[in-house]
Predict the 3D structure of the following.
Amino acid sequence: MVLVIDPQIAGISGDMLLCSLVDLGADKNKIISGIKQSEKFFSNSSIKKIDFEKTQKHGVNSVYLILEINEDVHERKGSEIKNAIFKSVQEINLSSKAVSFAISCIDTLISSESIIHGVSEELVHFHEASSIDTLVDIVGITIALEDLGLFDEKIVCLPISVGGGSVTFSHGTMSNPANAILEIFKNSNLEIKGNDANEELTTPTGASILVNLVDESIKFYPQLKLESIGYGAGQKDFKTFSNVLKIVRGTENDFEMDSVKILETNVDDVSGEILGNLIEKIMEQGARDVSIYPGVTKKGRPTNLICIICISETVDEIIDLLVLETGTLGIRISDSNRFIVPRTKHDVSIILNGKSFKVHYKKSSFKGKINFKIEFDDLKKISNVVDKSIKETEILLRREIEKLETN
């Protein structure tokens, strides 16, 4: 099973995620009961009313959090909020995974404020996040995740919309996304994007929860069989889009999925020797694969199309290499999703002709069928040592590996 979080349009806040989990099927009575148990650990605050109701957001039927509170607090120490959350999740008897998650969320919030203001975490004070809302969001989401069994499932997230314009809060006015949002997402595996909403769409609490919950960032929906969908409504209303967080739960197929960059360029004045050397250099820069195809372009010119598969982190180095080695004046770049058969890497020691060799191979599994492929460099090296053809060497090594696999 996999859970897909989709904050591409409306971003995410704590209450939006909590509501989407309730719409997905989390027991709202269990959540409300747990939050009410937690109320006593939050001084000078009380909950007058809490419930989840259906609402319409720009035509989308979604769940909305009704929360009425009594409090007159404009600032709290981060450690005070952390202590209240810790006591709350302990009181409710949640699992160790759930407790760890809840504490990690508030720790992320505290850490971001500590870095931004240049003070120790013990001295961090919250203003906007000082309300009991923060406890409701983190504790409520933790209960919901455990109730749905999501701590044991894969969770992925699409690019997160943060909005645009400027935001005004206790520390004044600044451009959106605010410093806390940037600090929380820095060095995470998640991607953010702005839009023309001219509002803050992702809150620090929502961001902190995401970075501690999500296993992987994705650009597109994975291939899956849908089982349930949850829609969580935010507090604001917008004219051009529904302020709703969508989450989807389903079953993935047997493939893994990743995203790669495709670099392409045509060259018509480069020798075969240079192209051969270029392949080696590009692979040394970390490319996943390189292909060169002959063709014909304008005015009947013979050409070679160089096509490279790589990851984002190596794009700049590979582009520099292409320009320097070929003199090309243009390189096309595109994003591509790949379905990948899951594989694992293995190495074994095999004795052949009285000599011991370390053999590396990849093993894949698809629809119950298992296959493995020996690294070609090993085949080449071993075949030279034992004075046999590569084909014959492969047969002998596969036979030995199969014996080890079945034992």
